[in-house]
Amino acid sequence: MNSSERLSAGLKALPDKISSFASTQAAWRFYRNESVSLSKLQEPLTAAAHEGIAEHCSQYALCVHDWSHLNYKHINKTDTYAITHETDVGYDLQTSLIVSDQNGQPLAPVAQRLVNADGSYATYGEPRPGLPVKDHLDEVSDCIQFLDGQGFAKPLVHLIDREGDSVGHIRRWETTGSHWLVRVKDNPKVDYEDKPMACKAVAQELAFSKTRQVSYQGKTYWQWVAEADVTLTRPAKPSQKKSKKPAVPGIPVAARLVVSRVLTETGDVLAEWLILTNVKDVDASTIALWYYWRWQIECFFKLIKSAGHHLESWQQESALAIAKRLLVASMACVTVWAIAADKSKEAAELRTFLIKLSGRQMRHKKEFTNPALLSGLWVFLSMLEIMDAYSQEELDGLKATNQQFLGKVV
Questions:
Q1: Which residues contact 75 (CB under 8 A, 6 or more apart)?
Q2: What are the angstrom distances between the C-alpha of 164 and each of 27, 152, 238, 362, 383?
Q3: Separation of alpha carbons 214 and 375, rounded Å
Q4: Is 302 in the same domain as 394?
Q5: DSSP one-letter string for 339-379
Q6: 10 Å Cβ neighbour count for 297?
Q7: Structural domain total, the chain
Q8: Domain that holds residue 111
Q9: 272-291 per-position pLDDT tens digit
């Protein structure tokens, strides 16, 4: 659960009377235990997602899918590989994160997959060492089908960034009855008013409505939104990495093109997002907001990596061991998100206390950050462990001994 530092990212022992070496050995045995599978470690996270969806989601639950490279150059890891080029060495992480459709609150990761040189390890299927690794969209399509069958209290809407702009995969999601929302590129064509047009060209034809103020690059601007009914009829173009394959025709897919723009007061376009979705019963302004909340998965990656657990400094020697520890660290993230989202007076007092324990400074008018809560939570757990492990007399003795040394430098 601890928030790590880059140069000391190993497992920390709680300050009880058990030696640090014994704690490390216990953790090592836990992660090496064959009965501690990824699917077992995923169960508490999935249970948290079920509970969070029932409590914090209104009409849908947003399921954000994304990928992140884990860069390692540790010589003790023999199963890393060059992900994109010879200096981009490590593992490829795929994560599916549930987010509230009411306020964008992250709830829990419901699926994760780690790809190494030999295959892949996922929480939603059997490990695949030695077998060919599917590409991102083929694999996430399997994941979507699995998650749609988990019986969540609200239907899932699967959000994917521009990598999901693949008409062949969109047809697959449509055929299986999935709800999807994808940011698309400028040039791919859709049928609009019975004419094939690039998405960017369709956007130029639409009338925009002023919806809400948003923060963009540290300043406040207005967001404008427009939409159009379109149809996807173009053939799918399979990946050309290994061999040239013919385009594959498919069924027409009816969709909504939602265009979100951030404009200056003079009408200059600062940013534009083209979004395709098959969700029909939610207004375009909300669809644009849902895509904005996709950013929560980037915050999760940051909390797991540089802002919290320093995942890319872990010394475990295999992708499987890294994946197991990652799931435990993800449970810590879920705990922090729950503390951050609770509106009760008691939770507010706990947040203030944890920020003090973290020793971190907040920006002006910023009550807390999730990394600071994570850091303070570890300190608090350590304090509670000390109070359970040591008597008052022992603590008084240690305090007196410590005071002797402090007195020598005062």
A1: none
A2: 38, 23, 13, 36, 46
A3: 30
A4: no
A5: HHH--SHHHHHHHHHHHHHHTPPPPTT----HHHHHHHHHH
A6: 23
A7: 2
A8: 23-186+226-238+247-253+273-330
A9: 999 999 999 999 999 999 99
